[in-house]
UniProtKB/TrEMBL annotation:
PANTHER family on file: HTH-TYPE TRANSCRIPTIONAL REGULATOR CMTR, TRANSCRIPTIONAL REGULATOR-RELATED
GO terms for MF: cadmium ion sensor activity; DNA binding; DNA-binding transcription factor activity; lead ion binding
Domain of life: Bacteria
Coiled coil ranges: none
NCBIfam families according to UniProt: HTH_metalloreg
Protein name: Winged helix-turn-helix transcriptional regulator
């Protein structure tokens, strides 16, 4: 049986989170600054219910955390280094050919 190192499992979880365009947008938005769900929903142009489902997925993956603020919660990246990683990925994307598609693009699972 193949044993996968814990860091590889976490990297794969991060990749699955990025595989969904809305979750990618959320992670990029949160890499800029922490935000409240209502602001994120407005910024992304999606319903609060849909946003809530994606935030729950990212929270369950350990990529974001909810910080209580009275009766509201503010979301932020679980670790500031995730923002650095996203920044590096964002700049590396420029080197990737945009006219190609991934054969598994239709298979989008929650992380």
């Amino acid at each position: 049986m193949l044993t996968v190192a814990p860091e590889i499992e976490v990297l794969a979880r991060f990749g699955r989170a990025l595989a969904d365009p809305i979750r990618s947008q959320l992670l990029l938005a949160l890499s800029d600054a922490p935000a409240h769900p209502s602001d994120l929903a407005d910024e992304l142009g999606i319903s609060r219910t849909r946003l809530s489902n994606h935030l729950a997925c990212l929270r369950d993956c350990g990529l974001v955390v909810a910080v209580p603020e009275g009766r509201r919660s503010r979301y932020e990246l679980a670790d500031p280094r995730l923002g650095d990683a996203l920044g590096h990925l964002r700049s590396a994307v420029v080197a990737i050919e945009t006219d190609r598609t991934c054969p598994d693009a239709e298979k989008r699972d929650c992380c």
